Amino acid sequence: MEYHRMIAIKIKSMGESSTIAISQKANLLRKKGVDVISLAVGEPDFDTPENIKETAVKSIKAGFTKYTPVDGVDDLKEAICLKLKRENNLDYSPSEIIVSCGAKHSLYNISQVLFEKDDEVIILAPYWVTYPAQVELTGAKPIIIDTSSSEDMMVSARELDTFVTSKTKAIILNNPCNPSGKVYGKQELETIAHAAVENNFLIIADEVYEKFVYEDANQVSVAALSEETKSRTITVNGVSKAYAMTGWRIGYAAGPQPIIDAMKKLQGQITTNPASISQHAATEALLGPQSDVDHMRKEYQKRRDYIVKELNSIEGVSCRMPEGAFYVFPNIANLFKKKSGAGVIRDSVSFCSYILDEACVAMVPGKAFGCDNFVRLSYATDMQSITEGVKRIKQAVDKLK
Ligand SMILES: Cc1ncc(COP(=O)(O)O)c(C=O)c1O
Fold first, then answer.
1. What is the DSSP letter of 324?
2. Which residues, 6+ apart, have CB-to-CB distance to 309 below 8 Å?
3. Cα 177 to the center of its chain, rounded Å
4. Would you call 247 exposed, middle or buried from its count of C-beta atoms within 10 A (0-12, 13-18, 19+)?
5. Distance (Å, rounded) from C-alpha 250 to C-alpha 238?
6. For position 18, what pLDDT does the model report?
7. Residue 238 beta carbon below 6 angstroms from any ligand 1 atom
8. How far is the CA of 352 from the centre of ligand 1 (A)?
9. 42 lines ligand 1 (CB under 6 A)
10. 313 CA to centre of ligand 1 in angstroms
11. Of 116, 192, 306, 326, which is least packed with CB atoms within 10 Å of its CB?
12. d(CA 379, CA 304)
């Protein structure tokens, strides 16, 4: 049988997640005994805090091992409401919350219930790789606005206006941003909110990195700007990054009742509830002590400061100081046209592949995030790997002619 012919075109034409693909390549090399340093993964290197793990064990022993309501247990939804009120100044009732199998799943549900053919969805580049893929899967068109050439990686009100049409249904906003680490200031959020209100489109606010904001940067939830903005915003968050719980698969969305109800309907036919045990663990994450999060943030900040300084000391590399998340996104365009033994560095892909072959360091090409002049390095890994990784990159760049 010709299986390839049987696969639906929408899946065949979907891009593979390049961040996952690179991590897999690095793992494969490691299995072959190559000493690869991966600065590619978007996953905290810290372990899930002990109190959260203990809660999960207790919940298994207490028999919380059955189906739960599709949209999550009441305790967790109430904990999310409390968190949104306390930390984000947002008032939601539990019925306006849906818990899903990770923020990625929440975003997928949102795309599926809102978008269809002929809709346009604005995405600011650099963007998280999954946004355009999820939008395209619905038949809608991602409208990419490249912000990478502006110093503050932000679109101006005037430019945003030129991309808005009568078909614009939403903008996806990632704050703090993966991969740039940008944290949008209040005024910048107001620019976006104003355009959304004026032109009657929705805002999908992905805030999964909100806990990792450094120094005096201040993360503001766009939905908290005004009641009018809140009424057209769906806020997405989760426990993967904040509590080092990537494998537990808990994310959530808060938004207008009809949209959340549509997501519940979809989720009821697709996955039902996220894992019952993970839901109990996530409740503890949100309500329990937050000292581990503080510790992680302090560690990330030290690593960020180090990696930015080191990258900027490499000739041809220029790295903006990111205010949040755990990535740096240096510009490497000045290295294009330089030659290695294997050929010419033409773009972010050939640069990353040169660095992987020459220095055994894995990074993600900026092309995957819609900005080919850049590469993404994650500092969610131990300081020793970061130090050695950057040293190797520096040596490899020095060899370019
Ligand atoms: C911007 C962004 N949103 C959402 C997610 C997904 O998080 P989760 O593990 O909750 O699905 C990620 C994970 O890399 C991310 O970088």
1. B
2. none
3. 7
4. exposed
5. 6
6. 67
7. yes
8. 23
9. yes
10. 31
11. 116
12. 7
Q: What is the pLDDT of residue 197?
A: 97
> Can you list the residues of the chain whose pLDDT is less than 70?
17-19
Question: Looking at the domain that runs over 3-47+292-398, which CATH code has it been given?
Answer: 3.90.1150.10
pLDDT of residue 205: 98
Residue pair 207/234 in contact (Cβ under 8 Å)? The answer is no
Which residue type does 390 have? V
Q: What's residue 188's pLDDT?
A: 96
Query: Rounded to the nearest 10 degrees, what angle do helices 348-359 and 383-398 cross at?
Result: 110
Q: Which helix (H) or strand (E) holds 378?
A: strand 375-378
Rounded alpha-carbon distances, angstroms, from residue 200 to 7, 135, 197 = 37, 19, 5
Q: Is 27 in the pocket of ligand 1 (CB under 6 A)?
A: no
CATH number of the structural domain 64-287: 3.40.640.10
What separation, in Å, do the N-terminal and C-terminal C-alpha atoms of the chain show? 50
Could you give the residue ranges of the DSSP H alpha helices within 2-118?
Answer: 3-6, 9-12, 18-31, 50-61, 74-88, 103-114
β-bridge mates for residue 206, sequence order: 174, 236
Cα Rg, the chain, nearest whole Å: 21
Q: Is the pTM of this model over 0.70?
A: yes
Position in ligand 1 atom list of the atom nearest CA 239:
10
Q: Please, are residues 237 and 173 in contact by the beta-carbon 8 Å criterion?
A: no
Work out the angle between the directed axes of helices 348-359 and 18-31 (0-180°, nearest 10): 20
Q: Tell me, what's the pLDDT at 342?
A: 81
- CA 130 / ligand 1 centre spacing (Å): 9
Q: How many whole angstroms separate alpha carbon 97 and alpha carbon 255?
A: 7
The one-letter amino acid code at 266 reads L
Domains of the chain, residue spans:
3-47+292-398, 64-287
Q: What is residue 151's predicted lDDT score, i.e. its pLDDT?
A: 87
